[in-house]
Write a structure and sequence with these properties.
- The chain has helices at about 5-10, 15-25, 35-50, 70-80, 95-100, 130-155, 160-170, 175-180, and strands at about 25-30, 55-65, 85-95, 105-110, 115, 175, 185-189.
- It is of the alpha/beta class and about 190 residues long.
- The chain has a single domain (about 5-189), classed as 2-enoyl-CoA Hydratase, Chain A, domain 1.
- The radius of gyration is 17 Å and the shape is globular.
- The two termini are about 30 Å apart.
- The relative contact order is 0.12.
Length: about 190
């Protein structure tokens, strides 16, 4: 949902009054599709937090995922934030949202939350990408993105890359207990 300042700013995400109030008490709320709007909000939010001394924050996540590249950018923004970060999965952290969670110092999921890691998919394919050299480039790019996500998960869970890949191929949601056993979270709230 755009606020008035977004419309006046060429569509660039600015914080709503509620988001600013949440930041003042150390909460970043990531809800909905992982996309450029979420990434821009997070850039604004972490900039505000940096100006205010890099306080400890809680990143509340309730997302079915979205754009892998935006998810990796959000992961990096949070990873580079100097304050402590607790990621709290409220409902779900699927796909790119599960990657974002891995950037947090402490990873927590609500008792009834679900997490999902899977192979990268793309809905943004044009016909010209399906031919010749462009198809090879597209496939290479998808494989590199998948590898990046698998390396993040492997580093945080302690699982070998082949174990992570096998789990991604299953494309099956995990409840909070399964996610804890796999190492995607550190505790259940």
């Amino acid at each position: 949902m755009k606020n008035q300042s977004q419309e006046n700013n060429g569509g660039h995400a600015e914080m709503t009054e509620l988001q600013l109030e949440q930041l003042q008490i150390g909460i970043i709320d990531l809800v909905g599709v992982v996309d450029e709007e979420m990434m821009l909000y997070l850039r604004h939010a972490t900039s505000w937090l940096q100006v205010n001394g890099n306080p400890t924050i809680t990143v509340q996540i309730s997302s079915g995922g979205g754009d892998a590249h935006c998810g990796l950018a959000i992961y990096d923004i949070l990873r580079l934030y100097k304050g402590d970060k607790t990621g709290l999965v409220i409902e779900q952290a699927s796909s790119a949202a599960a990657i974002i969670l891995q950037s947090c110092t402490k990873r927590v999921a609500a008792k009834h939350a679900t997490l999902l890691i899977h192979l990268v998919a793309s809905t943004h394919v044009s016909m010209d990408q399906l031919y010749g050299k462009k198809l090879k480039e597209f496939k290479k790019h998808m494989l590199e993105t998948q590898r990046s996500m698998e390396e993040i998960i492997s580093a945080r869970t302690g699982k070998k890359l082949r174990q992570v890949r096998a789990t991604c191929q299953k494309d099956k949601s995990m409840n909070s207990t399964e996610a804890l056993e796999f190492g995607l979270i550190d505790e259940i709230a």
